[in-house]
Specification:
The structure is a single chain. This protein is mainly β and 74 residues long. It has one domain. Helices cover 12% and strands 54% of the residues.
């Protein structure tokens, strides 16, 4: 199981954010959108530039890696 928290950006204004990552699934901290990628994400990632191949939306915000894991495994 590979988990990590990364510093990153999102949006056209490159808003700073924390990116939560779990086994290819990732989301911006505080988001309901979860995406899956084959890419290896690193600090400084712009999530708008990541190539995704799967996604889902959760009904409540994801604020921790533990919440991301629960959402993915649900």
């Amino acid at each position: 199981m590979k988990t990590k928290e990364l510093s990153g950006t999102y949006g056209s204004g490159k808003t700073p954010c924390t990116v939560l990552y779990y086994n290819g699934w990732y989301c911006v901290e505080g988001s309901v959108n979860v995406n899956r990628t084959h890419e290896e994400l690193e600090d400084g990632v712009n999530v708008e530039e990541v190539s995704d191949y799967d996604c889902f939306t959760r009904s409540s915000k994801i604020n921790t890696i533990e919440e991301l894991i629960k959402a993915v495994e649900a």
